[in-house]
Amino acid sequence: MQHQRIIAPLLPVAITLIAGIIVGRYLHVEAWITLTTMVFMIVASLFFFRFPKIQSLLICLITAIIGFHLIQHPLPNIPVVQRAGKRMIEYRERLLQQYQQEISPEAYEVVAAMTLGDKSALSQQTKETFNATGASHILAISGLHLGIIYMMVSLLIWGRRWRLVTQVLTLVLLWAFAFLVGLSPSVVRAAIMLTVYGLLSLGYRQKMSINVLAFTAIIMLIVHPHALFEVGFQMSYLAVLSILLFYPLFFHLISDKWLMEHRFVRWVWGMCIVSFTAQLGVAPLIAFYFHRFSTYFLLSNFIVIPCAYLILLGGFLLLLTSWSFVATILSAVVSFMTVSLSFIASLPYATIEGLYPTPLQVVLTYLLIFLSIYLVFRSIYTNFVVKYE
Length: 389
Description:
The protein is an all-alpha fold. Helix content is 76%, strand content 2%.
């Protein structure tokens, strides 16, 4: 098992920005007071350049004041971005009409949600089936969907001689898709992370880290501080944070050498760990907001994630070509997925209902989860890894 130190200098900045936004939502102060205090602290931090710890503390306080100010006085919307977003939404309506003409109504509701982010056609029964099985995340465009699109586009246009050009083109297409589906918090978060990932890949540096996640949170909250109080923002970031924290720990419980020799087992094990760690991050929030917990979420993800690849690929291929056999395959995949999830939802104890935790209980649950996992893996590392190195 690998023992890696988490280095995230931007994490304290993100945390203090969040703290400032939360305080600023409930405590109103005149703008001139916050701006004067901010200027004073910026000047003070310059005088403490010989004392890095004091300067770092002042920077965090400045960040908190910025969050405090922005929640009460948000940045104005950028007209160019608004116009671009409006045009892309209009274009999405034409693509949805194309879907309606070429695939069945049963397949349309799922395909429209998963490929173009339009959930207006989803029936209550379909929503309940996906919610009960812990697969509702597949219906909302998120990091999984953008990751698949990034991978598909990269495979199509990747060129070693022109890596910078192809990477920029890939990211432009990715952001065009983000505008197309409405720039929800989870989409923007994933698009920013993939942009950083793509740019860092040019220099062969670490591409995904807590530092990158903190950077995306800072950018998003500066532009749209009220996003902090949206369910999608909270669940998106906690899921990714949980994956980044715990995936390496759980994944390396099995020997890397053995996993490399058994590629299919490695793929299955990796999918299990991603699903499990993401669920660790969002389970308390799901209980708080939706008052339920899905017990078969691992089984559901083994079905919906491969289907997501096929639906995204088939959906975009259908929009480009209008081939009838692609529509037939799409309908079959959607039918298989919904029937499978309906069966899982009918199993005994598929969901635990009636969960009503208080905000304090949610916070304590997160602390208990994170502390327990840290102590367990610290014990494993100390008693087994270090002992036999």
